[in-house]
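Q: My collaborator sent me two sequences in one message, no labels, and asked for predicted structures for both. Can we handle them in order? The first one she listed is below.
A: Yes, handling them in the order given. First sequence, followed by its structure tokens:
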Amino acid sequence: MPFAAVNGTEIHYRIDGAQHSNAPWLVLSNSLGSDLSMWTPQVEAFSGHFRVLRYDTRGHGHSAVPAGPYTVEGWTGDVIGLLDLLQIERAHFCGVSMGGLTGIGLAARYPKRIDRVVLCNTAAKIGSPEVWVPRAARARNEGMLALADAVLPRWFTPACFEREPLMMAVIRDVFVHTDNEGYALNCEGLNAADLRAETASIAAPSLVISGTHDLAATPAQGQELAASIRGARYVELDASHISNIEQREVFTSTVLEFLTESR
């Protein structure tokens, strides 16, 4: 199980597609309350074209849970530190929700390191104190199991729960075993993060993906994000918040088409 000591934090990561030694790199970033396993539906297809680097965001999965506060600077710094350690000069980046916010920060602040960026089910400002403050407190005081029945129905449509019971069970298992403090610190980081003033500076080719039924990062927010980035494309899928799982086939083909097309 590979770990990297970057930005003062032990980050767990995996690489797929390493046999394509000259292929471009693609970094995948998880949502709040998940880990790198959320990209399982895409790994085989993506690794046919790229060297795929997945990692557990700090406070998630097997990565460390350093003391807070957690910030955009910390999230982006972890990615840049990982790229430096692995001697990756440039990479594409794709993130969902919190991972998408990280992508906004990377594209705006590290333009020489990011080639193309895919921002999924996200916004430059996600949520509000009314959401994040009580959620962080509940994670600390009651644990992740207490949050599961409130949060997970916002991730997927009822039809997806009915259609994919095994997948939903796996996702729930990851969620409830996310570190309580790690989750709370990331909630507080999201509460403080506001990148609306930075999106206009993004020059990387950008694709914004929203879910029609997403209540956490609404289609209106996705459209606003795409409109604020020069030349960005906008795609809306028949999904809720975790669109790469709920609409995995069309998500995968949409992202691959964007990342592999000629400029």
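Q: And the one she listed second?
A: Here it is, processed independently of the first:
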Amino acid sequence: MSDLLDLVNSAEDEPPKRPRRQKTPRRGVASRIVGVFGELLITAGVLVLLFLGWQFSLNGIMLSNHQSSDASSLSQSWATGSGSSTPPSTAAASAPPTTTASFPFGEPPVLATPSAAQEFAVVYVPRFGSDFKKLNNGGAGHYPSTQMPGQVGNFAIAAHRDGWGSPFLKINELQVGDPIYVETQDGWYTYTFRGLEYVTPYGVGVIDPVPQVPGATPTDRLITLTSCNPLYIASERIIAYGVLTGWQPRSAGAPAEIAGIVGA
């Protein structure tokens, strides 16, 4: 009995044994290389995301603001008669008898086709917001094979919609009846939006004088806006059509809807 008590007492006197720590296996060289490579990939991914954020947001906004500022300067130069570049010559439009539109200020004048990259017009689309773009060197471009503003046929222009600040980013939001204003040295042409169409990248018939009707003789004064679709993919083209419904010379002032933002 005494032996049992001595054993119990000795057990109580002994300090508790700590559990053994398991040794962490050392990472091999290959494992460390994979880890470093993974961290580099993560860092590269973050940098790419930051670049895309710059490209599609801040950079787009800055570019849009720059284009709008340039367009405002061009409009102001027409208003004051201080344009620095030689504008295209202007001729009166000769409308065929079948043209149904009538204009209180007479037949709209038609500029001669400008040289490549010559700025000859400013486009205002209120549905897109307060930004406006120059043609041919301010975010939008004129198809040189198509007609000029106010001319019978198809006045076709193109612009990007690949990020915030792109000229035609909101082209898909146009609603029937929306105005599209085109300003030149002579005044303002008012087109009215009629509808959208989606075509393949090879659907060049949309810029024919009568869109999608090869060889037809035009009788209306049309405008066609073209851009890529869907956003960032560009597997097809989005097309917006409009028809000229108004014209007013510079002496009559700008259309009321945009009078506060133009250089007149």
